[in-house]
Amino acid sequence: MEDKIKEIKTETKKKTTAKKKAEPKTEPKKEGVDMSAMMTPEMMAMFMKFMESQQQEVKPMNVKEEKWTKASLYNIKNEMVEVRNVLDGKVVYVSPKTKLKYKWLEKGDIEILSVEEILAMDSKKIFLRTPVLVIEDERVIEGLGLGKVYRDIELIENTEKLEELDIDELKEFVEGLSDECKNNLRDEMNKKINNYEIRDYMVVDTLKGLLDL
After folding, report:
1. pTM (global) more than 0.85
2. Residue 201: CB partners within 8 Å, gap ≥ 6?
3. Is residue 206 a contact partner of residue 173, using CB atoms and an 8 Å limit?
């Protein structure tokens, strides 16, 4: 009996359950989406244009803007720029360099001059610094130091902005103008006042006193 029990125990020890091997986990494959396949030709063209514009807008860092001086304007002396008459009348200019004659028959007329011609014109201060003529090019304005003169012209041509100044600022502005600019402002104010376009009594009264209206 004891021998049988020993045999049963021996067989029990020999019987072992085989361990199952862990199967590697497989994640479901993510299928990539080809956006280009979903775009129409028109959409693709718009997308490419957008990408090109983004690349063009990227500017290099630490690049200083060029400051224009009279000397540096000679580097662009052959470029042509617009010159406009701000005088309420005819203007004639004869170039001392080329002997060419330029005519502006009335206010607002535009002639095209080279930068070199304009540099020669600046020797006669009456044309650009009074001013009788204005240059429509920021580089030349900066190079010749005409910034303040042109800010004055902008106020004269946009008289609504003058009405926004207080009386002391208005007096300072008018008293600092050249005689030619005062004449231009006088003509503009005469029209505005006679047409009742300026209704601020203090402004009208101040301008009449300053400009002998």
Report:
1. no
2. none
3. no
